[in-house]
Structures are given as C-alpha cells and as structure tokens.
Amino acid sequence: xxxxxxxxxxxxxxxxxxxxxxxxxxxxxxxxxxxxxxxxxxxxxxxxxxxxxxxxxxxxxxxxxxxxxxxxxxxxxxxxxxxxxxxxxxxxxxxxxxxxxxxxxxxxxxxxxxxxxxxxxxxxxxxxxxxxxxxxxxxxxxxxxxxxxxxxxxx
Length: 155
Ligand SMILES: [Fe+2]
Ligand SMILES: [Fe+2]
Known about the structure:
The protein is mostly helical. It has helices at 7-35, 38-64, 83-111, 114-145, 147-152.
C-alpha cells in the first residue's frame, strides 16, 4: 500500500530511535550481568525485548507501506561510565523517543493515517508508562540513597 507523503520518513526516523535503544539496552544488560547486578540485567533485558518489539512493528509498517527500513542509522548516544550516568542517558533517550512519537502521532492524525496512528500509540504508552517511568524513578532513587546503596539492592 502506498503511504501518505512524509509518513515513511517519519517511520524510518522512529525506527532509528528504537534501534538505538535496542543497542544501548543490549550492551547495558550484558554489562550489568558482568558486574553481578542481576536485577539490573533482568530489567535491561526487558527493555531490550520491548525495543525489539517496537522496531519489529515499525519495520512491518515500513514494508507494508512499500518503504525500505534503514537498519544502519542510530541516534547520537553518550554512554555513561557509572550506573547513574547510564540511567540519566537512557532517560534522555526515552524522552527524545517519546517526543518523536508524539510528533509522529500528530502527523498521522493530520493525514488521516489511522493505521499508523494505531501502531504508534502503544509504543508511546510503553515509552512513557514503562520506560520513562522506570528510568526516572531509578535516577531519583540513586540521587536519594546514593549509588552504592542502590547497587547493593541490585545484586
Ligand atoms: Fe521503544
Ligand atoms: Fe523505550
């Protein structure tokens, strides 16, 4: 099916955000496992699975609209070297993704592309209600109790 003007570019740039998050959470989940922070490993694995699911949805939609997914592009991302720095960077990434999703949903609405809109709304719900919520609370907890005490609970 042919897409409305601009929607394919939007879906492709959203895919870039999901692939970036997938890469980041995969490596962080492995780093946390390597350091023995089992709970953080489990949580970041869950984030990775979610982002993979989001990427799959976007790839399916791009192909359905007769586009070609770009699997090589990534958003700029600064990996932190402490757990707190990583959580802050992850939160920034999630906020950027949410902002891009909101713009994309508004664009789909303007164009009357309800199929794309219906696909994007659950991604936004996961991004805000799960990912942003979790990273935001981790940053707040670490800032409150200190990184050492926080990490002692994550083994
Ligand atoms: Fe996502
Ligand atoms: Fe996310």
